[in-house]
Amino acid sequence: MRQMAYSDRNSDLASEIDAVRLAEVVGSLSLATDLGNGQPLETALSCTLVAMGLGKAMGLSAADLEAVYWGGLLRFIGCTSTSVEESSFSGDDLELRSALLSADFSDGSDIQRRISQGLGRQLSPARRARAVQSFLQRGPEIAPSVLAAHCEVAVRLASRLGMPPTVQAAVNTYHERWDGGGPKRLYGESIPLATHVLDFAEVAVANARGLNPDELQSLLRHRSGGQLDPGILPIFLKYSRELFSNLRQGSVWDKVMEAEPNSHRLVPADQLGQLARILGDYSDLKTPFMLGHSRGVARLAVEAGTLLGLPQKSVARVELAALLHDLGRVSVPNGITDKPDPLSPGERERVRGHAYYTERILSASPALSSLGRLGASNHERLDGSGYPHGLSGSLLGAETRLLAVANWYEGALREKAYRPALSRDTAAKHLRESTRQGHFDARAVAAVLDVTGHKLATPAIEAKRYPAGLTEREVEVLLLVGRGLTNKEIASRLVISPRTVQQHTLHIYNKIGVSTRAAATLFAAEHDLFSPWT
Protein backbone atom coordinates (compact mmCIF):
# COMPACT_ATOMS: atom_id res chain seq x y z
CA MET A 1 0.00 0.00 0.00
CA ARG A 2 1.33 3.44 -0.89
CA GLN A 3 2.51 5.41 2.12
CA MET A 4 1.46 9.02 1.62
CA ALA A 5 4.03 11.78 1.74
CA TYR A 6 3.85 13.72 4.98
CA SER A 7 3.10 17.01 3.23
CA ASP A 8 0.12 15.34 1.48
CA ARG A 9 -1.39 14.17 4.74
CA ASN A 10 -0.89 17.49 6.47
CA SER A 11 -2.30 19.80 3.83
CA ASP A 12 -5.67 19.79 5.60
CA LEU A 13 -4.09 20.11 9.02
CA ALA A 14 -2.69 23.49 7.99
CA SER A 15 -6.22 24.89 7.94
CA GLU A 16 -6.40 24.10 11.65
CA ILE A 17 -2.83 25.07 12.57
CA ASP A 18 -1.17 27.70 10.38
CA ALA A 19 2.20 27.40 12.09
CA VAL A 20 3.71 26.35 15.38
CA ARG A 21 6.31 28.27 17.31
CA LEU A 22 9.51 26.28 17.44
CA ALA A 23 9.98 27.53 21.01
CA GLU A 24 6.79 25.71 22.02
CA VAL A 25 8.00 22.44 20.54
CA VAL A 26 11.47 22.75 22.04
CA GLY A 27 10.00 23.97 25.33
CA SER A 28 7.85 20.84 25.46
CA LEU A 29 10.93 18.76 24.74
CA SER A 30 12.68 20.49 27.65
CA LEU A 31 9.89 19.30 29.96
CA ALA A 32 10.57 15.76 28.80
CA THR A 33 14.26 16.19 29.54
CA ASP A 34 13.34 17.31 33.06
CA LEU A 35 11.54 14.01 33.58
CA GLY A 36 14.45 12.12 32.05
CA ASN A 37 16.81 13.74 34.55
CA GLY A 38 14.57 13.08 37.54
CA GLN A 39 13.98 16.82 37.95
CA PRO A 40 10.81 18.82 38.65
CA LEU A 41 9.04 20.01 35.53
CA GLU A 42 10.23 23.39 34.25
CA THR A 43 13.77 22.95 35.61
CA ALA A 44 15.29 23.50 32.16
CA LEU A 45 12.91 26.39 31.54
CA SER A 46 13.96 27.98 34.82
CA CYS A 47 17.65 27.59 34.00
CA THR A 48 17.05 29.15 30.58
CA LEU A 49 15.16 32.11 32.05
CA VAL A 50 17.86 32.80 34.62
CA ALA A 51 20.57 32.41 31.98
CA MET A 52 18.83 34.86 29.64
CA GLY A 53 18.54 37.45 32.41
CA LEU A 54 22.19 36.93 33.30
CA GLY A 55 23.25 37.19 29.66
CA LYS A 56 21.40 40.47 29.22
CA ALA A 57 22.99 41.85 32.39
CA MET A 58 26.38 40.91 30.94
CA GLY A 59 25.58 42.70 27.69
CA LEU A 60 25.83 39.59 25.50
CA SER A 61 25.48 39.95 21.74
CA ALA A 62 22.32 38.88 19.93
CA ALA A 63 24.09 35.76 18.64
CA ASP A 64 25.26 34.77 22.13
CA LEU A 65 21.78 35.34 23.58
CA GLU A 66 20.34 33.12 20.88
CA ALA A 67 22.83 30.40 21.82
CA VAL A 68 21.94 30.82 25.50
CA TYR A 69 18.20 30.56 24.83
CA TRP A 70 18.13 27.52 22.57
CA GLY A 71 21.12 25.93 24.27
CA GLY A 72 19.32 26.17 27.61
CA LEU A 73 16.19 24.48 26.30
CA LEU A 74 18.15 21.74 24.52
CA ARG A 75 20.93 21.24 27.04
CA PHE A 76 19.80 17.87 28.35
CA ILE A 77 18.45 16.21 25.18
CA GLY A 78 21.33 13.73 25.02
CA CYS A 79 21.24 12.63 28.66
CA THR A 80 18.76 9.75 28.41
CA SER A 81 20.72 8.13 25.57
CA THR A 82 22.95 6.36 28.12
CA SER A 83 20.18 5.15 30.41
CA VAL A 84 21.24 1.54 29.89
CA GLU A 85 24.72 2.24 31.20
CA GLU A 86 23.56 4.47 34.04
CA SER A 87 20.85 2.11 35.26
CA SER A 88 23.45 -0.62 35.78
CA PHE A 89 24.31 0.79 39.21
CA SER A 90 20.95 0.76 40.99
CA GLY A 91 18.37 0.25 38.25
CA ASP A 92 17.29 3.88 38.51
CA ASP A 93 19.03 6.02 35.92
CA LEU A 94 16.79 9.00 36.77
CA GLU A 95 17.90 8.87 40.38
CA LEU A 96 21.55 8.83 39.36
CA ARG A 97 21.23 11.80 36.99
CA SER A 98 19.23 13.73 39.57
CA ALA A 99 21.88 13.16 42.23
CA LEU A 100 24.69 14.35 39.96
CA LEU A 101 22.98 17.24 38.16
CA SER A 102 24.32 19.94 40.48
CA ALA A 103 27.55 18.16 41.49
CA ASP A 104 31.13 19.44 41.19
CA PHE A 105 32.88 16.63 39.31
CA SER A 106 36.32 17.79 40.44
CA ASP A 107 35.36 17.34 44.09
CA GLY A 108 35.37 13.67 45.07
CA SER A 109 33.79 14.35 48.45
CA ASP A 110 30.93 16.24 46.80
CA ILE A 111 30.32 13.35 44.40
CA GLN A 112 30.40 10.80 47.22
CA ARG A 113 28.03 12.84 49.37
CA ARG A 114 25.48 13.34 46.61
CA ILE A 115 25.62 9.70 45.48
CA SER A 116 25.33 8.42 49.06
CA GLN A 117 22.27 10.60 49.63
CA GLY A 118 20.58 10.26 46.25
CA LEU A 119 21.27 6.80 44.83
CA GLY A 120 19.30 3.64 45.64
CA ARG A 121 16.75 5.30 47.90
CA GLN A 122 14.19 2.55 47.19
CA LEU A 123 16.66 -0.26 47.86
CA SER A 124 17.39 -2.10 51.09
CA PRO A 125 20.34 -0.68 53.09
CA ALA A 126 22.64 -3.51 51.96
CA ARG A 127 21.73 -3.19 48.25
CA ARG A 128 21.95 0.58 48.47
CA ALA A 129 25.44 0.37 49.92
CA ARG A 130 26.48 -1.96 47.08
CA ALA A 131 25.00 0.39 44.47
CA VAL A 132 26.86 3.38 45.91
CA GLN A 133 30.11 1.43 46.09
CA SER A 134 29.64 0.17 42.53
CA PHE A 135 29.24 3.70 41.22
CA LEU A 136 32.22 5.05 43.13
CA GLN A 137 34.36 2.23 41.68
CA ARG A 138 33.02 2.04 38.11
CA GLY A 139 31.69 5.55 37.57
CA PRO A 140 35.02 7.16 36.67
CA GLU A 141 35.67 4.38 34.15
CA ILE A 142 32.44 4.79 32.16
CA ALA A 143 32.04 8.55 32.64
CA PRO A 144 34.05 9.62 29.54
CA SER A 145 31.98 7.50 27.14
CA VAL A 146 28.72 8.54 28.82
CA LEU A 147 29.52 12.25 28.64
CA ALA A 148 30.71 11.94 25.04
CA ALA A 149 27.45 10.22 24.11
CA HIS A 150 25.38 12.96 25.76
CA CYS A 151 27.06 15.61 23.64
CA GLU A 152 27.11 13.63 20.38
CA VAL A 153 23.42 12.81 20.55
CA ALA A 154 22.53 16.36 21.63
CA VAL A 155 24.37 17.86 18.66
CA ARG A 156 22.73 15.43 16.25
CA LEU A 157 19.24 16.23 17.52
CA ALA A 158 19.94 19.98 17.63
CA SER A 159 21.13 19.81 14.04
CA ARG A 160 17.92 18.05 13.00
CA LEU A 161 15.98 20.85 14.70
CA GLY A 162 17.75 23.33 12.43
CA MET A 163 19.77 24.97 15.19
CA PRO A 164 22.70 27.17 14.08
CA PRO A 165 26.33 26.19 14.81
CA THR A 166 26.45 28.45 17.89
CA VAL A 167 23.65 26.50 19.55
CA GLN A 168 25.18 23.17 18.55
CA ALA A 169 28.47 24.31 20.07
CA ALA A 170 26.70 25.20 23.32
CA VAL A 171 25.14 21.73 23.73
CA ASN A 172 28.37 20.05 22.57
CA THR A 173 30.32 21.68 25.43
CA TYR A 174 27.70 21.07 28.11
CA HIS A 175 30.11 19.11 30.35
CA GLU A 176 33.15 21.39 29.95
CA ARG A 177 34.63 23.40 32.82
CA TRP A 178 36.37 26.76 33.07
CA ASP A 179 39.53 25.12 34.46
CA GLY A 180 39.78 22.56 31.63
CA GLY A 181 38.65 19.60 33.71
CA GLY A 182 35.83 18.56 31.35
CA PRO A 183 35.86 15.57 29.00
CA LYS A 184 37.10 17.56 25.99
CA ARG A 185 39.73 19.41 28.08
CA LEU A 186 38.59 22.78 26.76
CA TYR A 187 39.17 25.64 29.15
CA GLY A 188 38.51 29.32 29.70
CA GLU A 189 37.57 31.31 26.63
CA SER A 190 37.97 28.31 24.32
CA ILE A 191 34.53 27.28 25.64
CA PRO A 192 31.58 29.23 24.16
CA LEU A 193 30.45 32.10 26.35
CA ALA A 194 26.89 30.78 26.16
CA THR A 195 28.07 27.57 27.83
CA HIS A 196 29.63 29.48 30.72
CA VAL A 197 26.43 31.47 31.25
CA LEU A 198 24.29 28.32 31.14
CA ASP A 199 26.64 26.52 33.55
CA PHE A 200 26.31 29.35 36.05
CA ALA A 201 22.53 29.43 35.75
CA GLU A 202 22.22 25.65 36.04
CA VAL A 203 24.40 25.41 39.16
CA ALA A 204 22.54 28.30 40.76
CA VAL A 205 19.03 27.01 40.00
CA ALA A 206 19.77 23.38 40.87
CA ASN A 207 21.42 24.21 44.20
CA ALA A 208 19.01 27.00 45.19
CA ARG A 209 16.40 24.38 46.12
CA GLY A 210 18.37 23.15 49.11
CA LEU A 211 20.40 26.20 50.12
CA ASN A 212 19.62 29.60 51.57
CA PRO A 213 20.92 32.69 49.68
CA ASP A 214 24.11 32.98 51.71
CA GLU A 215 24.92 29.28 51.28
CA LEU A 216 24.26 29.52 47.54
CA GLN A 217 26.58 32.50 47.20
CA SER A 218 29.26 30.61 49.09
CA LEU A 219 28.93 27.61 46.77
CA LEU A 220 29.14 29.79 43.66
CA ARG A 221 32.23 31.55 44.98
CA HIS A 222 33.82 28.18 45.72
CA ARG A 223 33.17 26.85 42.20
CA SER A 224 34.19 30.04 40.37
CA GLY A 225 37.57 29.60 38.75
CA GLY A 226 37.07 25.83 38.73
CA GLN A 227 33.80 24.67 37.22
CA LEU A 228 32.51 28.20 36.60
CA ASP A 229 33.76 31.32 34.81
CA PRO A 230 34.98 33.65 37.62
CA GLY A 231 34.16 36.73 35.57
CA ILE A 232 30.44 35.98 35.76
CA LEU A 233 30.31 35.78 39.56
CA PRO A 234 30.16 39.51 40.41
CA ILE A 235 27.45 40.13 37.82
CA PHE A 236 25.40 37.22 39.09
CA LEU A 237 25.72 38.34 42.71
CA LYS A 238 24.69 41.88 41.77
CA TYR A 239 21.53 40.77 39.98
CA SER A 240 20.73 37.49 41.75
CA ARG A 241 17.57 38.74 43.48
CA GLU A 242 16.20 40.02 40.18
CA LEU A 243 17.24 36.86 38.30
CA PHE A 244 15.39 34.59 40.72
CA SER A 245 12.29 36.79 41.11
CA ASN A 246 10.60 35.31 38.03
CA LEU A 247 10.95 31.79 39.43
CA ARG A 248 8.79 32.56 42.47
CA GLN A 249 5.60 33.32 40.57
CA GLY A 250 4.32 29.92 39.43
CA SER A 251 4.87 28.53 35.95
CA VAL A 252 7.67 30.13 33.96
CA TRP A 253 6.47 28.81 30.57
CA ASP A 254 5.01 32.11 29.36
CA LYS A 255 8.06 34.05 30.54
CA VAL A 256 10.39 31.75 28.63
CA MET A 257 8.25 32.07 25.51
CA GLU A 258 8.43 35.86 25.86
CA ALA A 259 12.20 35.71 26.32
CA GLU A 260 12.85 34.23 22.86
CA PRO A 261 15.45 36.51 21.24
CA ASN A 262 15.00 38.00 17.80
CA SER A 263 11.79 37.17 15.95
CA HIS A 264 9.75 34.11 16.81
CA ARG A 265 10.80 31.08 14.78
CA LEU A 266 7.74 29.45 13.21
CA VAL A 267 7.34 25.96 11.79
CA PRO A 268 4.70 25.44 9.06
CA ALA A 269 2.09 22.85 9.93
CA ASP A 270 3.21 20.61 7.08
CA GLN A 271 6.66 20.34 8.69
CA LEU A 272 5.40 19.31 12.12
CA GLY A 273 6.09 15.67 11.32
CA GLN A 274 9.82 16.31 11.11
CA LEU A 275 9.79 17.77 14.63
CA ALA A 276 7.54 15.01 15.96
CA ARG A 277 9.98 12.38 14.68
CA ILE A 278 12.77 14.06 16.63
CA LEU A 279 10.71 13.95 19.83
CA GLY A 280 9.75 10.34 19.15
CA ASP A 281 13.37 9.34 18.58
CA TYR A 282 14.32 11.08 21.83
CA SER A 283 11.77 9.13 23.85
CA ASP A 284 12.59 5.79 22.21
CA LEU A 285 16.33 6.14 22.95
CA LYS A 286 15.54 5.71 26.64
CA THR A 287 15.18 1.92 26.54
CA PRO A 288 16.61 -0.59 24.04
CA PHE A 289 13.34 -2.50 23.81
CA MET A 290 11.52 0.52 22.36
CA LEU A 291 14.02 1.72 19.76
CA GLY A 292 12.10 2.85 16.68
CA HIS A 293 8.76 2.14 18.37
CA SER A 294 7.21 5.59 17.88
CA ARG A 295 8.05 5.65 14.18
CA GLY A 296 6.74 2.10 13.80
CA VAL A 297 3.41 2.89 15.45
CA ALA A 298 3.05 6.04 13.34
CA ARG A 299 3.74 4.23 10.09
CA LEU A 300 1.33 1.42 10.95
CA ALA A 301 -1.40 3.85 12.02
CA VAL A 302 -1.04 5.84 8.80
CA GLU A 303 -1.43 2.79 6.57
CA ALA A 304 -4.34 1.39 8.58
CA GLY A 305 -6.04 4.79 8.83
CA THR A 306 -5.77 5.27 5.08
CA LEU A 307 -7.27 1.82 4.51
CA LEU A 308 -10.16 2.73 6.83
CA GLY A 309 -10.84 5.82 4.73
CA LEU A 310 -10.24 8.29 7.54
CA PRO A 311 -9.97 11.94 6.43
CA GLN A 312 -6.42 13.05 5.66
CA LYS A 313 -6.60 15.45 8.60
CA SER A 314 -7.34 12.54 10.95
CA VAL A 315 -4.56 10.41 9.47
CA ALA A 316 -2.13 13.31 9.94
CA ARG A 317 -3.23 13.80 13.56
CA VAL A 318 -2.86 10.09 14.34
CA GLU A 319 0.64 10.03 12.86
CA LEU A 320 1.74 13.04 14.89
CA ALA A 321 0.16 11.67 18.08
CA ALA A 322 1.83 8.29 17.50
CA LEU A 323 5.24 9.94 17.15
CA LEU A 324 4.66 11.83 20.41
CA HIS A 325 2.76 9.20 22.41
CA ASP A 326 5.67 7.87 24.45
CA LEU A 327 7.33 11.13 25.52
CA GLY A 328 6.23 10.50 29.09
CA ARG A 329 8.04 7.15 29.13
CA VAL A 330 11.30 8.97 29.93
CA SER A 331 9.85 9.43 33.44
CA VAL A 332 10.16 5.68 34.13
CA PRO A 333 13.52 4.30 35.32
CA ASN A 334 15.11 1.65 33.12
CA GLY A 335 15.21 -0.64 36.12
CA ILE A 336 11.43 -0.87 35.68
CA THR A 337 11.01 -0.74 31.89
CA ASP A 338 13.80 -3.27 31.36
CA LYS A 339 12.92 -5.52 34.30
CA PRO A 340 12.77 -9.24 33.42
CA ASP A 341 10.58 -10.12 36.42
CA PRO A 342 6.92 -9.23 37.14
CA LEU A 343 6.42 -5.63 38.23
CA SER A 344 5.25 -4.72 41.71
CA PRO A 345 2.00 -2.73 42.04
CA GLY A 346 4.02 0.44 42.61
CA GLU A 347 6.13 -0.22 39.53
CA ARG A 348 3.04 -0.84 37.41
CA GLU A 349 1.65 2.51 38.51
CA ARG A 350 4.94 4.16 37.62
CA VAL A 351 4.67 2.70 34.12
CA ARG A 352 1.02 3.71 33.75
CA GLY A 353 1.97 7.24 34.79
CA HIS A 354 3.89 7.74 31.56
CA ALA A 355 0.64 8.38 29.67
CA TYR A 356 -0.26 11.19 32.06
CA TYR A 357 3.16 12.76 31.58
CA THR A 358 2.88 12.61 27.81
CA GLU A 359 -0.29 14.67 28.06
CA ARG A 360 1.24 16.98 30.67
CA ILE A 361 4.41 17.64 28.65
CA LEU A 362 2.47 18.75 25.58
CA SER A 363 -0.35 20.58 27.37
CA ALA A 364 1.55 23.88 27.69
CA SER A 365 1.68 24.35 23.93
CA PRO A 366 -1.68 25.40 22.41
CA ALA A 367 -0.68 23.80 19.11
CA LEU A 368 0.42 20.48 20.64
CA SER A 369 -2.02 20.02 23.52
CA SER A 370 -4.68 18.19 21.50
CA LEU A 371 -2.01 15.89 20.06
CA GLY A 372 -0.83 15.21 23.59
CA ARG A 373 -4.32 14.17 24.67
CA LEU A 374 -4.65 11.88 21.66
CA GLY A 375 -1.18 10.39 22.12
CA ALA A 376 -1.77 9.75 25.82
CA SER A 377 -5.01 7.91 25.02
CA ASN A 378 -3.27 5.01 23.27
CA HIS A 379 -3.77 2.83 26.36
CA GLU A 380 -7.51 3.54 26.67
CA ARG A 381 -9.85 0.60 25.94
CA LEU A 382 -13.42 0.41 24.65
CA ASP A 383 -14.64 -1.27 27.84
CA GLY A 384 -13.13 1.43 30.08
CA SER A 385 -10.35 -0.81 31.43
CA GLY A 386 -7.53 1.34 30.06
CA TYR A 387 -5.65 4.39 31.33
CA PRO A 388 -4.91 7.22 32.10
CA HIS A 389 -8.56 8.36 32.22
CA GLY A 390 -10.52 5.10 31.92
CA LEU A 391 -12.53 6.40 28.96
CA SER A 392 -14.85 4.02 27.13
CA GLY A 393 -17.29 3.57 24.27
CA SER A 394 -18.35 6.71 22.44
CA LEU A 395 -15.81 8.80 24.34
CA LEU A 396 -13.09 7.14 22.25
CA GLY A 397 -13.08 8.51 18.73
CA ALA A 398 -11.84 6.76 15.60
CA GLU A 399 -8.36 8.25 15.95
CA THR A 400 -7.95 6.97 19.51
CA ARG A 401 -9.27 3.52 18.62
CA LEU A 402 -6.83 3.22 15.73
CA LEU A 403 -3.86 4.45 17.73
CA ALA A 404 -4.57 1.98 20.54
CA VAL A 405 -4.54 -0.99 18.15
CA ALA A 406 -1.45 0.17 16.23
CA ASN A 407 0.47 0.72 19.45
CA TRP A 408 -0.48 -2.68 20.87
CA TYR A 409 0.39 -4.63 17.71
CA GLU A 410 3.72 -2.88 17.12
CA GLY A 411 4.70 -3.44 20.74
CA ALA A 412 3.65 -7.09 20.69
CA LEU A 413 6.18 -7.88 17.96
CA ARG A 414 9.00 -6.47 20.07
CA GLU A 415 11.16 -8.47 22.41
CA LYS A 416 10.74 -7.23 25.98
CA ALA A 417 12.83 -7.90 29.04
CA TYR A 418 10.05 -10.09 30.47
CA ARG A 419 9.07 -11.99 27.31
CA PRO A 420 10.25 -12.82 23.80
CA ALA A 421 8.72 -11.07 20.81
CA LEU A 422 5.38 -12.49 19.74
CA SER A 423 5.10 -13.92 16.26
CA ARG A 424 2.80 -12.12 13.87
CA ASP A 425 0.25 -14.94 14.04
CA THR A 426 0.31 -15.04 17.83
CA ALA A 427 -0.05 -11.26 18.02
CA ALA A 428 -2.99 -11.37 15.61
CA LYS A 429 -4.63 -14.12 17.68
CA HIS A 430 -4.29 -12.10 20.89
CA LEU A 431 -5.60 -8.99 19.16
CA ARG A 432 -8.68 -10.77 17.83
CA GLU A 433 -9.37 -12.31 21.25
CA SER A 434 -9.03 -8.90 22.96
CA THR A 435 -11.46 -7.50 20.41
CA ARG A 436 -14.01 -10.20 21.26
CA GLN A 437 -13.58 -9.26 24.92
CA GLY A 438 -14.45 -5.66 24.11
CA HIS A 439 -11.03 -4.03 24.48
CA PHE A 440 -10.41 -2.93 20.89
CA ASP A 441 -12.44 -1.59 17.97
CA ALA A 442 -13.09 -4.35 15.41
CA ARG A 443 -12.68 -2.10 12.36
CA ALA A 444 -9.37 -0.73 13.58
CA VAL A 445 -8.14 -4.26 14.31
CA ALA A 446 -9.16 -5.47 10.86
CA ALA A 447 -7.31 -2.59 9.21
CA VAL A 448 -4.12 -3.09 11.22
CA LEU A 449 -4.10 -6.83 10.55
CA ASP A 450 -4.79 -6.24 6.86
CA VAL A 451 -1.88 -3.82 6.32
CA THR A 452 0.47 -6.12 8.25
CA GLY A 453 -0.21 -9.03 5.92
CA HIS A 454 -2.69 -11.15 7.85
CA LYS A 455 -5.23 -11.25 5.00
CA LEU A 456 -3.09 -10.89 1.93
CA ALA A 457 -0.40 -13.27 0.80
CA THR A 458 3.05 -12.11 1.76
CA PRO A 459 4.75 -10.69 -1.35
CA ALA A 460 8.20 -11.77 -2.44
CA ILE A 461 10.86 -10.05 -0.38
CA GLU A 462 13.29 -8.00 -2.37
CA ALA A 463 16.84 -7.50 -1.25
CA LYS A 464 16.95 -4.50 1.06
CA ARG A 465 19.20 -1.51 0.58
CA TYR A 466 20.54 -0.06 3.79
CA PRO A 467 21.75 3.50 4.46
CA ALA A 468 25.42 4.51 4.40
CA GLY A 469 26.31 1.36 2.48
CA LEU A 470 25.73 -0.90 5.48
CA THR A 471 25.56 -4.61 4.80
CA GLU A 472 22.83 -6.84 6.19
CA ARG A 473 25.28 -8.30 8.72
CA GLU A 474 26.36 -4.81 9.79
CA VAL A 475 22.73 -3.85 10.32
CA GLU A 476 22.25 -6.95 12.50
CA VAL A 477 25.25 -5.90 14.58
CA LEU A 478 24.12 -2.27 14.71
CA LEU A 479 20.69 -3.19 16.07
CA LEU A 480 22.19 -5.35 18.80
CA VAL A 481 24.72 -2.64 19.66
CA GLY A 482 21.80 -0.25 19.95
CA ARG A 483 20.12 -2.66 22.32
CA GLY A 484 23.12 -2.30 24.62
CA LEU A 485 24.46 -5.85 24.22
CA THR A 486 28.16 -6.47 24.78
CA ASN A 487 30.46 -7.79 22.06
CA LYS A 488 30.37 -11.19 23.72
CA GLU A 489 26.55 -11.25 23.82
CA ILE A 490 26.30 -10.14 20.19
CA ALA A 491 28.83 -12.79 19.16
CA SER A 492 26.76 -15.47 20.89
CA ARG A 493 23.56 -14.39 19.11
CA LEU A 494 25.14 -14.17 15.67
CA VAL A 495 27.48 -17.15 16.11
CA ILE A 496 30.62 -15.15 15.34
CA SER A 497 33.63 -14.19 17.44
CA PRO A 498 33.72 -11.10 19.73
CA ARG A 499 36.67 -9.84 17.70
CA THR A 500 34.57 -9.99 14.52
CA VAL A 501 31.83 -8.07 16.31
CA GLN A 502 34.36 -5.41 17.29
CA GLN A 503 35.59 -5.13 13.69
CA HIS A 504 32.02 -4.85 12.40
CA THR A 505 31.28 -2.15 14.97
CA LEU A 506 34.31 -0.08 13.95
CA HIS A 507 33.33 -0.34 10.29
CA ILE A 508 29.75 0.65 11.13
CA TYR A 509 30.85 3.70 13.14
CA ASN A 510 33.14 4.81 10.31
CA LYS A 511 30.41 4.40 7.70
CA ILE A 512 27.75 6.33 9.60
CA GLY A 513 30.10 8.94 11.09
CA VAL A 514 29.60 8.44 14.83
CA SER A 515 31.81 7.56 17.78
CA THR A 516 29.40 6.37 20.51
CA ARG A 517 26.80 3.65 20.92
CA ALA A 518 24.11 6.22 21.65
CA ALA A 519 24.72 8.14 18.42
CA ALA A 520 24.81 4.88 16.43
CA THR A 521 21.47 3.95 18.00
CA LEU A 522 20.00 7.29 17.01
CA PHE A 523 21.22 6.78 13.43
CA ALA A 524 19.46 3.41 13.29
CA ALA A 525 16.25 4.97 14.66
CA GLU A 526 16.42 7.84 12.18
CA HIS A 527 16.55 5.31 9.32
CA ASP A 528 13.72 3.11 10.67
CA LEU A 529 15.95 0.08 11.15
CA PHE A 530 14.28 -1.03 14.39
CA SER A 531 10.76 -1.65 13.07
CA PRO A 532 9.70 -5.27 13.74
CA TRP A 533 6.90 -5.42 11.17
CA THR A 534 8.22 -3.85 7.95
Give an overview of the whole structure.
This protein is mainly α and 534 residues long. The protein has three domains: 43-250, Hypothetical protein af1432 (Orthogonal Bundle); 269-451, Hypothetical protein af1432 (Orthogonal Bundle); 467-526, Orthogonal Bundle (Arc Repressor Mutant, subunit A), CATH 1.10.10.10. It is 59% helix and 1% strand. It has helices at 6-9, 22-36, 43-58, 62-74, 83-86, 93-100, 108-118, 125-160, 165-172, 193-208, 213-223, 233-245, 253-258, 272-284, 293-308, 312-324, 334-337, 345-363, 369-376, 398-412, 424-436, 442-451, 472-482, 487-494, 498-512, 517-526; strands spanning 19-21, 266-268. The chain has a two-stranded antiparallel ribbon. It starts with 5 loop residues before the first helix and ends in an 8-residue tail after the last helix. Residues 1-8 and 456-462 have low confidence and may be disordered.
Determine the CATH superfamily of the largest domain.
Hypothetical protein af1432
Structural class call reads mainly alpha
Compressed to H and E, one letter per element, the order equals HEHHHHHHHHHHHHEHHHHHHHHHHHHH
Strand content: under 5%
Number of helices: 26
How far apart lie the N and C ends? 12 Å
Percent of residues in helices:
55-70%
Going across the major beta sheet, what is the strand order?
1-2
Most strands sheet: 2 strands, antiparallel
Low-confidence stretches: 1-8, 456-462
Give descriptors for this structure:
Hypothetical protein af1432, disordered N terminus, 1% strand, two-stranded antiparallel ribbon, 3 domains, 534 residues, 2 strands
